[in-house]
Amino acid sequence: MKVLPTLEGGLRVDLEAGRDWVIFEQLVWDARGKQEGWLSKKLGSRMEDEDWAEFVMPELEGIFASQIETVLAGLKTAKENEENGEAHFFILPEEGGAWYGVLNQARLSLESEWKLGDLEEVENLEEVEEKRLGAYFRARFYLLLQSKLLDHVMD
Amino acid sequence: MAVQAPEKKGKVKPVESQDLPWKVVVYDDPVNLMEYVARVFQKVFGYSREKAEHLMMEVHHAKKAIVWSGARERAELYVQQLHEHQLQAGLEREE
After folding, report:
1. Which of B31, B80, B86 shows the shortest C-beta gap to A101?
2. Is residue A140 part of a domain?
């Protein structure tokens, strides 16, 4: 996979192998989490106002879902243009926020489920459970892509 | 003559003093990037780069920071905007 900045202020992502697709399919899966509306509930847990749950949380759910839809649309376009397992898609400047948001949703979801921050202290990752290790590496990839977005798209 | 209190229909919010400001508090989390948090503070509150970075570092080191204080309605709006950016934020009452 290659991720390169474009002259228009976006990113071009070249997918070169089957596993490149898997990580982006997994991204959407991770971002959705295990429970509908999990992120707005998590964020709203510090707000005691009942109106918050009734009015604000549904709005937040809509925003987060819309970010996922933006990412899915980009991936769908790439899939349609796939040839021999290779494809590319662009993250346009106006889509940078949505992409960043989805990557963040995914990382928050993985952190919540697997407590990945604790793994920063682990010296031998081979001892870590396979599923948790997979989550750790996906989160690392999402973080790298977020950094690219911050550096090149969301200035 | 005793007068029976009218029956309450629905929930009534307690009356709160208008004088005491509300604090918008941002909590540290292991996911959000420091650079991103500083940019969100600039965007939401209109803070300078320096102030935004200072507050971000306070969140990082002290695990939470008061990023704004004032009227409740506006404080709630700020919390909502911080939540839209996926930052852990809440309201605390000035004591």
Report:
1. B86
2. yes
Between chain A and chain B, how many beta carbons pairs sit less than 8 Å apart? 49
Contact B89 A43 (CB under 8 A): yes
Give yes or no for residue B15 having a pLDDT over 70. no
CATH architecture, domain defined by B22-93: 2-Layer Sandwich (3.30)
Interface contact A56-B80, CB threshold 8 A:
yes
Q: Does residue B67 sit in helix, strand or coil?
A: strand
ipTM of the complex: 0.94
Each residue's pLDDT tens digit, B38-71: 999 999 999 999 999 999 999 999 999 999 999 9
**Of B14, B21, B29, nearest to B87 (Cα)?**
B29
Q: Provide the domain limits for residue A85.
A: 2-31+68-152
Partner residue facing A60 (CB), from B30, B84, B90: B84
Query: In this structure, are residues A15 and A86 in contact, taking their beta carbons and an 8 Å threshold?
Result: yes
Amino acid (one-letter) located at A70: T
